[in-house]
């Protein structure tokens, strides 16, 4: 056989092996991506808590993309308020001393503000002016490319996933498209389920076991409280209670906590199981220190010996407090209260948010 023909045949065989290897890689990738689809659909169909499903999707993405780094961000529909869904040792460089995003790249703002284009891929981002705000972060971790997807929930909040890659470990574009499309489809299905829950549970305001308000019922009822407070120039406060226990939350342990919360406030104050590990209290107050008194009273009650056998209560709660009219909407009140609770860094106690800062006591609000 002539040498040229032999070389040509060898090259064809090498090309064929490369093609087969790629197809096998593509097959395995797609198989892994959709392997737990029945379980995912079942979780959504059962109406699992929003945070539970979001955590599931996050873990799935990080497992599916072991050579990339996934960054999850939420912003409001005006693209003015931004926060990380999850913090870790990689993205903490992007946060300021108050655990908030210090800056947001213009390229990310432009993408979030363009819902008609829910996917985007940027390459060589270290040299792109639209990403210059994050240049130290990108250089430190050698990120060269980013693929982004955005999904809006029923309230207009925008959920973004950024997949940051290094040039030497870049995933093929076709496979990345599959990942982004899958994530967007899962989130859209989840938000549709949330919307259905809202419609179905309008007439079912309370959890029958714990007696706590459901989230949507609390939102509607506390919205009325805020309207009344605005009309009559009154104050209100929102308390966010983060459960510090890492064990599964069950109704048996949750009910004593709910009962203790009810004993702490007035009958017309509002208490809800807001998320898997978060409860909220909406109360009318006359003075700023009134909310602080409620938090102290609740923590004292939870520290009593009668709760020593309750693992959920024994692990403690972090309480964050925010105030109306300092914050004019339930959304901003909740974000501020959650920010104050998170500032405790997983220790039991309470903090008060006031004009963007966290305080141990309301007496410190006006201290020079």
UniProtKB/TrEMBL annotation:
Gene3D superfamilies: 3.30.70.270. It comes from the Bacteria. SMART domains: GGDEF. Residues 234-357 form the GGDEF domain. This is GGDEF domain-containing protein. It comes from Marinomonas rhizomae.
């Amino acid at each position: 056989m002539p040498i040229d023909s032999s070389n040509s045949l060898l090259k064809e065989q090498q090309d064929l092996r490369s093609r087969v290897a790629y197809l096998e890689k593509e097959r395995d990738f797609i198989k892994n991506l959709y392997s737990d689809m029945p379980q995912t659909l079942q979780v959504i169909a059962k109406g699992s808590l929003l945070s539970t499903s979001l955590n599931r999707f996050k873990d799935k993405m990080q497992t599916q993309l072991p050579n990339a780094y996934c960054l999850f961000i939420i912003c409001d529909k005006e693209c003015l308020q931004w926060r990380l869904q999850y913090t870790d040792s990689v993205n903490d460089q992007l946060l300021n001393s108050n655990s908030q995003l210090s800056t947001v790249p213009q390229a990310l703002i432009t993408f979030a503000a363009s819902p008609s284009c829910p996917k985007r891929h940027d390459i060589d981002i270290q040299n792109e002016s639209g990403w210059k705000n994050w240049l130290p972060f990108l250089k430190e971790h050698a990120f060269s490319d980013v693929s982004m997807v955005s999904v809006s929930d029923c309230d207009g909040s925008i959920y973004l996933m950024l997949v940051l890659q290094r040039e030497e470990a870049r995933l093929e574009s076709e496979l990345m498209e599959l990942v982004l499309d899958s994530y967007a489809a899962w989130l859209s299905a989840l938000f549709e389920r949330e919307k259905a829950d809202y419609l179905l549970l309008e007439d079912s305001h309370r959890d029958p076991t714990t007696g706590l308000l459901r989230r949507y019922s609390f939102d509607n009822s506390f919205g009325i409280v805020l309207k009344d407070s605005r009309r009559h120039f009154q104050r209100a406060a929102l308390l966010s209670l983060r459960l510090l226990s890492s064990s599964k939350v069950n109704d048996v342990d949750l009910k004593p906590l709910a009962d203790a919360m009810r004993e702490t406030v007035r009958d017309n104050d509002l208490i809800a199981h807001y998320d898997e590990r978060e409860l909220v209290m909406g109360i009318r107050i006359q003075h700023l220190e009134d909310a602080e008194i409620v938090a102290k009273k609740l923590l004292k009650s939870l520290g009593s010996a009668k709760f020593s056998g309750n693992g959920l209560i024994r692990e403690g709660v972090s309480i964050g407090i925010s105030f109306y009219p300092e914050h004019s909407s339930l959304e901003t009140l909740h974000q501020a209260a959650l920010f104050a609770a998170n500032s405790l860094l997983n220790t039991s106690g309470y903090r008060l948010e006031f004009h963007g800062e966290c305080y141990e006591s309301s007496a410190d609000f006006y201290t020079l």
